[in-house]
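During the no-cost extension, the postdoctoral fellow (Dr. R.K.) reprocessed legacy sequence entries with the updated structure-token encoder. One reprocessed record is reproduced below for audit purposes.
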Amino acid sequence: MANITEVQTLRTRANGTWVIVKILTDQPGLYGIGSASDHHHSSTIITAINEVIAPLIIGRNAGHIEDVWQSIYTSAYWRNGSILNTALAGIDMALWDIKGKEAGMPVYKLLGGPTRTAVPCYAHAGGNDIEALIEDIIRYNEEGYEVIRCQLGAYGGGGFREAADIPLPKNHLSKDRFFDDELYLETIPEMFANLRDRLGFSLKLTHDVHEHLRPHNAVTLAKLLEPYRLFFLEDVLSPEQIDWFRHIRQQCTTPQAMGELFVNPHEYVPLITERLIDYVRVRVSKAGGITPCQKIAHLCEFHGVHTAWQEGGDNDPVNQAAAMHLDMATTGFGIQEENHFSPSELAAFPGHAVLDGGYLYANEEPGLGIDIDEKCAKDLLEIHACNHAAEDRRPDGSIVRP
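Re-encoded structure tokens follow.
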């Protein structure tokens, strides 16, 4: 068995928002790569890997994945934070990559073998008005997508009021528009009424609230959307308010997808075991990698909950590959979020997953099946910038949590 000799980190993509971990071993040519990307804290994660994790695992057996994971998990005493989880995920994915290469088979075969031939994904359709949205939905459907997310513009779209139309405080913030819960409750059900009237019920439609609503309004929205039979309603509550899922379950049958911001088992375990959600959307790297996510998938299977691992535009092809391998081997799989990359980004990751006609396709290469062209990856890097989450506010100036 191979032993770990070196842990490298490589920062790539414009603004340096992707961090790729590369673990080298004492076996010539044998290494693995993993995703430790964080759109906001790349430098912090690199420091954690280089100064805390690498010294701990160098010399360890690369095949002892569970033991290494548990060791890193408690290495800084405090755990279940987004920074350590992401750093840990980069190591974990790289070790699974090595394990697959040693075994001469793809990771999904090591996880139990394929339960499907390809991975269905859902598309992200959007438009600033209903006509533009319908046009985008039809475009995706013609490409082969059956499950399509529907948004009126950006997150919170349909719930924004122009500053000129609102009675604002004399000392109001200098913003063009402000979010209004009640307007959102009016606009989004109306949007789905139009979509079902025009497109029928054959398409599977979803919607992402992005945690914008106050909890009682989240319950109301879920009830109002019940007649339109969504595939799921995504992130209707913020992580701080997940107890309100009990009220939603008591009030309606609108399927719930949740977990994009989860990093702690105490967040998702009760929702799964009490059957309060229908799809868990933890990002593989934010949960700590393939090792914990396979456990989440097994827990879901026993409770009738499905996986829908989160991707998003800030994610990288390595995390996508890890999610795809889990999808291939997971009986309780539900749907996979799509992600699109530029040609130059894909060129930096030979062996990347192929997205075609609404499906992700794995290759038969051992490990994760994906590699990194370090020169191409370095060429993608332009500047290091601080990236902040979008900040929406209500008329009185208070923040709407994303």
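The domain at 110-368 is CATH 3.20.20.120 (TIM Barrel). The chain has a mean pLDDT of 95. The remaining legacy entries will be reprocessed before the final report is submitted.
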